[in-house]
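Structural prep section.
Before we set up the soaks we want a predicted structure of the protein with zinc ion in place, mainly to decide which crystallisation condition to try first. Input record follows.
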Amino acid sequence: MSRRKSTAAAQDEILMLIGSGRARSRRELADALDLSPSTVSQHVQALLTDGRLVEGESGESSGGRRPRELRLTDRDEYLGAIDLGGAHARIGLVRRGAGIVATREIAVDLGEGAPGVIGSVATALAALAADSAGAGRLVGAGISLPGPVDVDRGTVESPSRMPGWQGHDIGRLLENATGVPGVVENDANAMALGEHFARTERAEHSVTVKAGTAIGAGIVVRGTVYHGAGGVAGDITHTRVSAAGETPCSCGNLGCLETVASGAALVRLLREQGYAVSTTADVLAHVRDADPVATTLARTAGRHLGEVLCAVVNFFNPGAVYLGGALATLEPFVSAIRSQLYAGSHPMMTRSLVIEPALLGADASLTGVVRMLDESLFRLGR
Ligand SMILES: [Zn+2]
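Run finished without errors. Recording the tokens verbatim:
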């Protein structure tokens, strides 16, 4: 069964799989590489002996790692990750082979255009590295964007929330601004990748929904983001739902899911009821205060999203659905999605389906971006 590989090639692949977190143990390496356990053990032993890999001691608990987990030898190299949102960018600095060491948020105005915003976040990343990386050096930077991304070209496509960004090579802008290799991904896809690998028990295929001011979703198939033919797979927000009637959507269409189930929709619906709200955070505050109108609206929004997710689950049969984004911190919203999924999916789909809140919170997209970046650097031989 086992394919023959040169020792060097197999060891490089092992370092890539461990470094990116795709594999954590000899068993996971054997599965990923289609090599026999004894061959994997020989390679791992060689890498442990020459100091390129280390193995957690039994009982070690620091950093949340499980005992006996393989990892790269801690290097004095850092990766930068940027999660660009509608009004803020979250910036993370990650020590390669370790984890996130520092994060910072800055305000951004997407209307400033791609070169200006990328320049600002690169400056903030450089400042964060100067404050937190000591003598270490930055070796890569990645960014997640709140719009559809062509990952091969590094561009953002038809971004309704990002006027003036169309056609810009964001990857190139980021590389020029930081001086290191870069990757670009859609924010929901990055979050999906982060969440997919965040658990001890990993699903083979998962869907992660990001329900915040807007709604997005990412699909991970066998550990890889599924982008679809046009790079917009998972973009469920513009699915037409009958409950939305003819409500105009930001995309120019009528009756999209976004107009009844997003944070922006809840702001609009609450304002129609006379509430002085202007942001998703205002809506969250009312639901947390158990305001009955806001609570009912959140539950109804969850039901609409759950209805669309039923079709996704019945079609795709994922092992897990992870619910992230600000709205997924609201119990009425999440339980409405959950009951909709159980009521509206075939029992064979839900029998072993895991439906869980996202684990990584505000760092989910950063974590996914770092994983992509690490793999891309290994491919570049760095
Ligand atoms: Zn729409």
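Observations: The CA atoms of residues 140 and 180 lie 5 Å apart.
Flagged for discussion at group meeting.
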